[in-house]
Amino acid sequence: MGKKRKQQQHANDGMTASLPKQEAVTLADQLGGDVLAKLKAAKQDLTAKEQAAEEERQAKLAFERKQREKNKSFEELLNEYGDKGSKF
To answer: Positions of the region Disordered (predicted)?
Structure first.
């Protein structure tokens, strides 16, 4: 059994080694220009949507932070700033 496995492995190695690197078919070659262009456009669209969602999330967090600061009670403000505040 061991001899057959070694012979099969050598046969498989010979098949892959016979193709030069220049003739190796890539996925881009198989898909064709039209499908590849559609995939690239879809990728750009997806990244643009993700970026817009991240910007929206950041804006929402900033707004909520301002609202919390605006709605703090006098006790919270006094604890946070104490005597450090200006007289004006």
So the answer is: 1-22
The predicted model scores a pTM of 0.50
Rounded Cα distance, 62 and 69, in Å: 11
Q: How many Cα atoms sit within 13 Å of 63 on the Cβ side?
A: 6
Q: Which CA distances in Å does 71 have to 15, 64, 65?
A: 73, 10, 10
pLDDT digits (tens, 9 = 90+) for 20-53: 566 677 777 777 778 888 999 999 999 999 999 9
Question: What are the residue ranges of helices labelled H in the chain?
Answer: 2-18, 27-31, 33-70, 74-81
Give the pLDDT confidence of 54-67 residue by residue, as tens digits.
999 999 999 999 99
